[in-house]
Every structure is written in C-alpha cells, then in structure tokens.
Amino acid sequence: xxxxxxxxxxLFGLALAHTFATKSFxxxxxxxxxxxxxxxxFGEVEVVFGLWALVLIVAMAFVMGGGAAIGYAESRTxxxxxxxxxxxxxxxxxxxxxxIRAAIATLARLVPxxxxxxxxxxxxxLVPLLGSLITEPAAMTLAALMLAPQIFRKDMPEWLKYAxxxxxxxxxxxxxTLTAFAAPPVLMVASTWHWDSAFMxxxxxxxxxxAVLINATVVSAMLRGHLVDSPAPAPGAVxxxxxxxxxxxxxxxxxxxxAHHPVIFVGLFLFFIGFxxxxxxxxxxxxxxxxxxxxxxxxxxxxxxxxQQWWLQPLVSSMGPRALFFGATALTAITxxxxxxxxxxxxxxxxxxxxxxxxxxxxxxxxxxIIANAPNxxxxxxxxxxxxxxxxxxxxxxxxxxxxxxxxxxxFLL
Length: 414
Known about the structure:
There is one protein chain. The protein is an all-alpha fold. 74% of the residues lie in helices and 0% in strands. It is built from 20 helices and no strands. The chain has helices spanning 2-31, 36-43, 45-64, 66-75, 79-91, 94-109, 115-134, 136-147, 158-175, 184-193, 197-223, 242-257, 262-278, 288-305, 309-317, 321-332, 337-345, 352-364, 376-383, 394-413. Helix 11 packs across helix 20 (394-413). The radius of gyration is 21 Å and the shape is globular. The termini are far apart.
C-alpha cells in the first residue's frame, strides 16, 4: 500500500503541474495546428484531474489488482460533483438567470451611480453572500454568467480580468460562511464540531461579509472606466412568464434543499429537463457540456485527493493554531479546501482555536487556484472564453487572487 500511496502522491503532483501548464497547451495548439485537437484537450483545465484520476486507477489495477482499483473508485463519494453539475445547469437556465438579473437591475437603479458599475458591484458582493442561502456553486454560476459580458470580454485589459476573477473566487469562497450548509468546507465540519448557522454567522459570517464588501468595492473602482452596459435582449426573444420563472426557482430551491441526497436531486433534475423541453420557447440551451466537464473535474479531484490523506493529515495535525491558519491557506491552493477541512475533522482533540484557524484559512485561500474551492471550476468554465487563448493562466489567477485573499485573512485574524 505504501507504494500505491507514493504513486498517488506523484500523480497528484503531476496533475497540479498540468493545471499550471494548460495555457501552454493552448499556445501549442496554435503553433501546431495538425495536432490542435489533442493540445486543446490537454489545455482544458476541467479535464486535468479526471485524466490523472484515470491514470491512478490504471496504476492501481497494475499494482494492487483490478478488483482493488474498482473497489477504491466505488468507495469514493461523488455527491459533490453530481450536485455541482445539477445546480450549475439549473441556476444557469434562462428563467433563473433573468429573474436574478432583474432583481440586481432593480437594486442598481436605486443607487445614484452608473448602472453598469453598480451591477458589477452587486454581482461581486451581493451574489457571493447570497451563496450562503443558495449554495456557493449556484452563486458562482449566476455571478459568472452575469459578469461575463461586462468584465470577461476580449477588449478588457487582461490584468483587470484576473483581478476581477480573483475577487469573484475569493468572495464566493468566504461568502458562503454565513450558514452551516452552503460552503463545502463548512459542511465537512459543521456536524462533527456542532457548528450551526447562528454560530457561523456570528463567528465567521460578519468577518467574511466585511471582506466581501471591501474586495468588491476595490475591484469595481478599478474596473469603472472599462465597463459597458449589459447587452440588450436578443431581438424577438420571448418574455419569460412569471409562473415559468417561479417554477424554475422552485426547482433551484428543491435541489439546494436536497443537496446531500443525490437520488432525490438527480430525480428532480430529470423532471427539470422535462419541464424545459415542454416550455422550450422560454429557454436558452442548457449548459450541459460545461456542467459535465466541471463534474468530471471534481470527480477526478475526489479520486486523486482520496489518496493524499497519508501525508496531509499528519501535516495538519502537527501545526499550532496560528501556523494552522497560514498552512491551511497555503495548502488550499493545492488541495480542495473541503478535503482539507474534512481531514481536520478527523483529528481528535483539536482545540476550538485550532478549529477556527483551520476553517478560516481554508476558506480564505479558496480563490487562489481553480482547484482550491469546488465552485471555482464552474466559474472558470463560464468565463474563460473572454481570456487570451480562451484559457485561464494559473499564475495570473494566483496574482489576481492574492489581494482579496490577504483582505480575507486580515478579517479572519481580527
């Protein structure tokens, strides 16, 4: 088993290196058009962890036997990848998106500032905080889709796009901490540590809310000279009836309510698909491909991450509270923050201060990379076409996310 653990750690490291190289593969596709399809495939960040998870299962079959490899793959819990896929598709449906967009526009008109500026601020501040109710993946999907035509467009300076993406990722990661059920890293520890929504709001939530508002305000001010009005609806577009919007929002609420019961929310999703076909004239094409790719990414992370406990847990348990905070923030950049807090929940005798520092560090670092927080691949999939080469550079994202991450760290350390 030790050999398998070492192989899994090496493959995890190769997967991380691959995520940093995705932009290079896109450039190779332009340089060598004969093999452009293959290079584009390797340049899809959503493919990375699924691809290396397959390599892990094949390696496990050779080392431990096919039965052991299949047994390991089946022992993983895939509720989160399934949920993110379903909630992305439902939240991105035209009736839901237009309902949220109309609410944002109504609020924006009440503020005596340029409407595009207020729209962007609300999408970067209010929607991430709304993630504490509708879950972080839903908030990420809605915010990314509404921000894409205003910020993540080809004529926007590249550094500003990365600054905005960093704020979006960080704000969604910390914005879900006002409740005990909406953020994946919180969910992993809430039951074990007996943390309810009242505790989360009073301990983490207000700090997160202040950081979210500051981050959104700063980056909106940076963007103000480059913003344009939201595109007008397509000519001849059929207006969505209020009842259809209400039914879509009911589906969204039901999926969120049964987020931990895949049999129920997948069944609801099938009914949702049927409803969208029945009233097709009120729909845009569902983002099934994007949702499936993100689900594939997260499922690969579940498979690869499940074999990293042997080195991660001793590392986490050896740190004092203050070191744990900074260590968790750094480790989150290379591991999913929900996996990190789950490992922390297995440590017996962790002090209350250490528990706080572990979760605070994990959510503060949730915007540093695409793999740091489960909703990040969803946001990346929806906005990446607006970036150079149609891909998101990992190093540039890290630089863009550092300032809002530091702001979140300061608030959590107060």
